[in-house]
Amino acid sequence: MLQNTVSQMSAATNPLSVLLDTNSGSTGVGFTIHSSYDEMVVMTNDKWREGAGGIPMNSYLVAASVASDGFATAASMDRRVVLLRIVGRTELSTDRDSLRAVMEHFQDNPDSADPGFRMNEPISFGMLQWSGIKCKVLGTFYVDSSGKFRFGADVEDFFAARHMKVFKPGSKALEKIVNFVDPIRQKKAEDDAKMMGMNEAPSPFQIGTVRFTSASQMGIQAGQGDVPVQIFPGDFLARRTAVFGMTRTGKSNTTKTLVSAVALSALESDLPVGQLILDINGEYSNANNQDEGSSIADVFGDNTVRYRVDPPSTGFRDVRVNFYESLGMGLQFIASNLKEEAGSMSEDLKTLVGLDLQQPADANDFQAISRWQRKVAIYQCILKNAGFEHDPGMRIKFDVNKKVLSFLYRSHSAIRDASPGATNDADREKATIQFFGLQSAGKQYSVDADAAVRFWQSVREIEKACGGPDALQGIRKGNDKWLSSEDYGLLSVLVGKSSKNDALIRAGGSIRNAAREFHSPKGSANVADDIYGLLKEGRVVIVDLSVGPPRIRETMAERIARRVFDRSSEVFTSGGNPPRIVLYVEEAHNLIGKDADLNTTWPRIAKEGAKYGIAMVYATQEPSSIHPNILSNTENFFVTHLNNDNEIRTLARYYDFGDFAESLKRCQDVGFARIKTLSANFTTPTQILLFQPSAVSTAYVKAKANGSSWFKPLPSD
Fold first, then answer.
1. Are 129 and 45 in contact (CB under 8 A)?
2. Are residues 42 and 135 in the same domain?
3. What is the rounded CA–CA span in Å between residue 106 and residue 95?
4. CATH number of the domain within which 564 lies
């Protein structure tokens, strides 16, 4: 009586009992007949298999040497449950006899209407029902000395004469198995969350349901319900995540689910997490028929900013750069693309390419500021003359001293013709100002773009007529020459003539062809910095790369990513805490391919971004094309269908994906993925939930209603 009471109490409180509990749906399906450290052979019977609703390939089994209510009184070596994964059939010693009997039966009964032997005599039928299953050992569940439920990814020992009864887990047990997180890892996740600034570790979210095979009829008919698979948002922050699979097998759906989960978790944990999506096909920023006519941008509309090339009037910002405002970045585009073009560059064009447009650090150094402003003014006139569009109201500013204004009048016949009879410097200065439409702006002048071009073209014309650059260089303001030799080289580019011999040179046309497509008068002075600022605020930023020339898409994506990496690394190396950012990249084989230079932007983000708070989610059809160094440092994998052995062999080198080689190649079901995350001890085959905007929107509204210290809705366009 006492023994029964102890057993009942043990079954009710011991977490191991849940894994074997037949009252919760677990079903006995056989016994182990051979054990080792790595694998076990299970002897099973057709009747048990049918009663369990089938035992699918790659499914889980649990094995124990005591009954579910016997752990309290069992020997210490028996207080464990071994987790197994089915990897195939194996031969039993009786199989040859069974095969001979089957062959003889069909030879004797070639017209048999009962190939299933249902009408055969019971003894023969019973003998033919036995078969062997080969299982891989995934690990051991046990209860430690402090009473905590634990999992070890191996077995400490096996015993040749101590066999185990094997169960197919019921729904309750299966949910416990696939969603188990070791207490040590759980504690580490909580500590990491606090270190990141979260109020608490975000709750796990459902990514899908357990699915072992493409065919799933037997389990459904047996009344076995869907078992949820949950993953932890913290697994993706400052980590690398691979999404592999053929086109139209659910990679984008997986990514949308991850974006939604991170966005909701950021509100729950009260920590802003920026998400940058480089949208190759426009499916995250634009509604489509697959997602209830909505998109990520629609679901998180008050926290999402979209960029694209040549955007419509509302809803998008221009991803291109305003060269007139973003001086350094615009010049970088021009310089890098000119260098890539065929043909030699003149010394004057080399002067432009090597130009430094950085504003002087000392704002009180008036002479340095004046020199810089003149250089900027000439550069902006070069852009104007090369056909770069600008805001109609744009003004170009620069400093001109009185002696220069007077000199220009004396040297420029058109000015003299417009205002004849100026006999003193004051009148000559006034005439020059009036001729070019110069307007006083503090200690400098302001003029519209067309007039600015005429002014600097006139300066170049006078310089050449007076014997070269020494003419205006000789007019000094204090000890400062008004124009430098570098300025004169820029003026030569402006007019398209060599500073040496006035011969025609590559100039406006080459500059226009090199970079005009990267420029927009509607663009920001620094799009990359703008995007980084939005990411710091916890925004979802989608860069729609589905329109525009490929060169623009690739270049802008790289420059934005580089800026995110550089800014975060600067914060980290200066002792600060970088913002948490998740970067989503499709067609990753083009960016972090196996031959990629690990010192370039994308490989550096994938390799080093984690320590700067940058997570990367990268997707491709070709795991073999990804740089092996990056694959080796990837913590999370979502893998759907792959269609060739080479890709599967590459993947099989990592974790336990080799167990799923045949399934990955054969099963093409959309959303049928094999998932391995940082917190999980093994890979779980999962049917990923379909992204449902309406359900996510409801959860988003609820999360915002709970309050957040960082979230502020974006103003509507």
1. yes
2. yes
3. 17
4. 3.40.50.300
First to last CA, the chain: 75
12, pLDDT greater than 80: no
Distance of alpha carbon 203 from alpha carbon 230, whole angstroms: 10
Which residue, 2, 257, 32, 60, is CA-closest to 659?
60
Cβ proximity of 246 and 619 under 8 Å: no
DSSP 587: S
pLDDT for 467 beyond 80: no
358 and 279 fall within a common domain: no
Q: Kindly provide the residue ranges of all beta strands, DSSP E only, lying in 374-498, ordered along the sequence.
A: 395-398, 439-441, 444-448, 476-477, 480-481
Domain-ending residue, one of 518, 549, 577: 518
Q: For position 11, what pLDDT does the model report? A: 52
* 329 φ/ψ angles, rounded to the nearest 5 degrees: -65, -40
Q: What is the pLDDT of residues 625-684, one digit of tens each?
A: 999 989 999 999 999 999 999 999 999 999 999 999 999 999 999 999 999 999 999 999
Please name which of 302, 253, 708 lies closest in space to residue 539, comparing C-alpha atoms. Answer: 302
Q: Are residues 159 and 44 in the same domain?
A: yes
pTM of the full structure: 0.85
Measure the CA–CA gap between 601 and 591, rounded to whole angstroms.
Answer: 9
Which of residues 345 and 7 earns the better pLDDT score? 345
Rounded Cα gap, residues 22 and 54, in angstroms: 16
Q: Confirm whether 420 is domain-assigned.
A: no
Q: What is the pLDDT of residue 530?
A: 95
The pLDDT, as a whole number, for residue 45 is 94
Q: Provide the residue range defining the domain that includes 690.
A: 205-214+228-319+526-705
Look at strands 240-244 and 614-620 and give their pairing: parallel
Tell me, yes or no, whether 410 lies in a domain: no
* Residue 157 tokens, joined: 């020992």
The tally of domains found in the chain comes to 3
Determine the Cα–Cα distance for residues 322 and 335; give it in Å rounded to an integer: 16
Question: Is 465 in the same domain as 539?
Answer: no
- CA distances in angstroms from 89 to 42, 92, 174, 458, 667, listed in the order given: 9, 10, 22, 89, 19
Cα 446 to Cα 455: distance, rounded to the nearest angstrom:
12
> What is the Cα–Cα distance from 551 to 517, expressed in whole angstroms?
9
